Amino acid sequence: MWTHAPWQRRFLPHPLAPQERLRAYATWCNAVEGNTTFYAVPARDTVETWALQTDPEFRFVLKLPKSITHERRLGDVGAEVRTFLGAIEPLGPRAHALWIQLPAAFAPADVEVLAGFLRRLPPSYRYAVEVRHRAFFEDGRSARLLERALASVGAEWIPFDTTTLFQSPPTTDMERDAWTKKPRVARRTVALTDRPIVRYLGRDSTDETIEGWRGWVGRVAEWLREGRSPTVFIHTPDNADALLLARRFHDDVRARLPEVEPLPEPARAPAEPPTLF
To answer: Signal peptide location in the record (predicted)?
Structure first.
């Protein structure tokens, strides 16, 4: 996400050398979703540059490759897992959690496969699972089945909250596209571990996005009071203002809990020079 085109020159200095782009992003936010690892395992030397650009406290939530989760459906993937873990090793403590996003076809009947897969993973990493099958959100027995499987290995359940997106018909092209691709499931606000992770998708309207996250502000403040360390990712269909919105969410939480540390002063894009015409 730190190379998201609409942010360049508007929020982030541009042009920047590849080995400086994440460093600039890390002045805006202290965590990032590693979505590109879903499509390809990064080269180890690329990951080394990520580590060099970030403090040890910076959080990467890295998605397992689709070859593991979607193509082989967690079966006979030992070699692929070892390759992935070898590639991300340079991140050290920055690898906050490994994100196992499962396809919508992954149903309650498949939970035992997931449980076996999680038991075979090395305990040196934390794991967080995102499911999209509606039964997990509509059937209490299915939800408890998954919770037990995750709790047995200390894994978290990542909620992807799209309720704000689907609360009214789309009004922009990007919202219409999101309506066709994003899961329509109930909001889930339960944490299983001391490191809950939330993915929130709002609207292209800033006001609607902020209104939709108000419940999350209270929940995150509650988790912090309990001694948990949550990570929250803020999205909109176009993500054009996601950096500003993420910082606004952080400010809203700090308004409830002033002891929460502020985010760093961001490295902004320089103002456009004046012209004669």
So the answer is: none
